[in-house]
Specification:
heterodimer, A: 115 residues, mainly beta, B: 117 residues
């Protein structure tokens, strides 16, 4: 158990709909990362938040957005869903403190199926 | 982040040591070598990381060459449950400032290790 909690574990929704994936980082971790893994792609970095602020953006579509709340949990919002958005979405967290161990730990993922 | 090169796949007999190589010839002085693995459709699992000294923990050993251009992850007694994709990643670990933009993990295709009975 990495200590990173993601909900829901599985989600099936129709094209055009909107879903929200939730992530609770490990206790004390300030940074949250979101990754996407589809069948034909590897693990793709989407976005990073640090203590409530966006810090890095990767291959995230404009239809997707994320935020990190004051209690440090994060949500990834996926809208106008398309079949190609079907994937595993992973959240990861890290303390990201200066001059300390900064290993990134991953949750077990949220399976999204768009039909 | 420096790029890494790993074999696409490897086989290992159960109970034997699994030695997974990784080349990272463009690694910078402040970049660490990290190893993660992903068992089918589970979240990537942290294994070990190191800068220049060899490292060992309860899961594995990491051997880094003196010039730091390559490394080897060693699973001393592989079991069937070690069958997974293993990722070698180089990344800054000792931060210059908090929450910077260059500290994400960039995953390549990794090595599919199959442990056979």
């Amino acid at each position: 158990d990495s200590g990173v909690t993601q909900t829901p574990k599985h989600l099936i929704t129709a094209t055009g709909q909107r879903v929200t994936l939730r992530c609770s980082p490990r206790s004390g971790d300030l940074s949250v990362y979101w990754y996407q893994q589809s069948l034909d792609q590897g693990l793709q970095f989407l976005i990073q938040y640090y203590n409530g602020e966006e810090r890095a953006k990767g291959n995230i579509l404009e239809r997707f957005s994320a935020q990190q709340f004051p209690d440090l949990h994060s949500e990834l919002n996926l809208s106008s869903l398309e079949l190609g958005d079907s994937a595993l979405y992973f959240c990861a967290s890290s303390p990201e403190l200066i001059d300390s161990g900064n290993t990134i730990y991953f949750g077990e993922g949220s399976w999204l199926t768009v039909v | 982040d420096a790029k890494t090169t790993q074999p696409t796949s490897m086989d290992c007999a159960e109970g034997r040591a699994a030695n997974l190589p990784c080349n990272h010839s463009t690694i910078s002085g402040n970049e660490y070598v990290y190893w993660y693995r992903q068992i089918h459709s589970q979240g990537p699992q942290y294994i070990i990381h190191g800068l220049k000294n060899n490292e060992t923990n309860e899961m594995a050993s990491l051997i880094i060459t003196e010039d730091r251009k390559s490394s080897t992850l060693i699973l001393p007694h592989a079991t069937l449950r070690d069958t997974a994709v293993y990722y070698c990643i180089v990344r800054v670990a000792r931060l210059a400032y908090s929450g910077g933009s260059n500290y994400k993990l960039t995953f390549g295709k990794g090595t599919l290790l199959t442990v056979n009975p």
